[in-house]
Structures are given as C-alpha cells and as structure tokens.
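JOB MANIFEST
job_type = single_chain_structure
chain_count = 1
residues = 153
[input]
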Amino acid sequence: MNHENEEARGFRISDRRRFTHEGETRPADEASAPSKDEPASEDPRTRDASAARRADAGPQHGTRSVEVSFSTFVLGLSTQALLHLGEIPDPQTGATNRDLTAARQVIDILGVLKQKTVNNLEQAEEALLDSVLHDLRMAFVRLVRAGTPKEDT
C-alpha cells in the first residue's frame, strides 16, 4: 500500500456501546448498525449471529447479576475465607478442603480493608465488616489451637 494514503486515511472510531453518554439505551438498530465508513457484512446471518452474541453477553453459566456494593464485596471475601477454613464445601467439587494459609490471607485482606476505610463507611457497613472479621478470626484461631494441619486435601 501507499504510505501517503495510509497517513491521509488515519483511523476511525466507532461507538458500539449499548448506552448513550447520558445513560439511555440506544435503539437496537443504531447500536448494531455499521457506520457509514464501515462496509456492511456480506452475509446478514453472520451479522445477526454477532448481534445475538453481544445481546447474550450477560451473566455466564447460570450466574445471577448481583449489584456490587461494599457489603457484597465483604461477604464475597468472607465466603472465600470460610471456604479456605473448611467451613463450607467447594461449590464446584462439593469437597471440603482446608487451606489455612489462604484463609489467613483473605482475613488479612479484610483487616487491611478495615484499616483503610476508617471513617469512610456507613454504620451498617462498618458493623458488617467488624462482625465478619471477628467471626473469621475466631474460627481461624479455633482451628490453629486445635492443631489442624495447614492443608487438608
């Protein structure tokens, strides 16, 4: 190709987001329609299949969409810690495994989160974090005092 033609042509940006700048949903034909500069696909079935994949790009493998908040984040970390403590079975295998090193890391992460969010949490969020940390630390100490091996697989 001619180098001068490439420089003159530059590059093109196509906005294919499903929402406008104001947060409103774009009409389906506007979001999936090719721009004036973009050549239309030869085979409409390919274009339709691509649009269907984009529409189905939501949650995978039967998971539900959950609003992420500070509380759900803390509860997710506490669930990981409980999994490593062997308090709940692994949801994929159904087996109960114990990894105290990993559990301690997650508990320490929650502790750092508590330190870094001092005076920045709502009262309910702070109470949740305090309660989760207390319960996890007590469970960890109970297992260590009982002489549980570091890893049980």
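[summary]
The chain has a mean pLDDT of 77.
Strands lie at 98-99, 151-152.
exit_status = 0
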